[in-house]
Amino acid sequence: MAADARVRVIRNGERSFWNNEWLQSRQSFPATGNFDLAANAHGLLMVHNEDIVDPGEGFDTHQHIDTEIITWVLEGSVVHQDSAGNSGIIHPGLAQRMSAGTGIMHSEKNGAGRYEKPALHVVQMWLPPDEPGITPSYQEMDIADELARDTLVTVASGMRRHRDETAITLHNRYAALHVARLETGSAVTNPDAPFGHVFVARGRVDFESAGTLEQGDAVRLTDTGGQSITAIEPSEVLIWEMHASFA
Description:
With 247 residues, this protein is mostly beta strands. It has one domain: Sandwich (Jelly Rolls), CATH 2.60.120.10. It has one helix spanning 144-147, and strands at 7-10, 16-19, 23-27, 47-53, 58-64, 68-75, 78-82, 87-90, 94-99, 104-110, 120-127, 137-142, 152-157, 168-169, 175-182, 187-189, 193-202, 204-207, 211-214, 218-224, 228-231, 235-242. The radius of gyration is 17 Å and the shape is globular. The mean pLDDT is 94.
């Protein structure tokens, strides 16, 4: 049977890799040194970095403009501080969004001290806002209880259909991020959308029509959905549902 061109599997080893003394970054879309992120985006998703950050290390204060940034921690914690006066400790199960808008300075550090453990394991995702020049803002919410229900949880969305269920709000009415923590044998259904991105953050799953996906693998979808995602072992899956693109 011919492969479905609407379903493209990106294996862990196919991602861009960048590292220095304290950071290992595996990037689904080239991010480090790339000044035209939209050119490599899928749908609205222009950055999807999976980072390992050593204890006591992190990103010093730097600026963002007109970007919706979602930080999702898998292990460890992130200490966030920004120029709008927001601060927080982001840990597994805490949904967090920073809207850069007209411009914001922030820093992100591994919450563990230099001689402590563990290393920080985090996924950071960027997409554009609906409109440039909004007021910078910050939002977080602990959804650990919802994630324990072995089903798909809407973590961040600006879509009207998710208004009453999303944990945090995106300033983009065409996109939503869903997360599922699945026990062995449990399954969820991939949303139907013009653009989708499914990422296996941990574990191993069976993706209907594409086969087995390991930790770090992803699927980029175009004009399709409805596929079942079944956990072969305890797994965590991040799913972007997008109804617009840069094109």
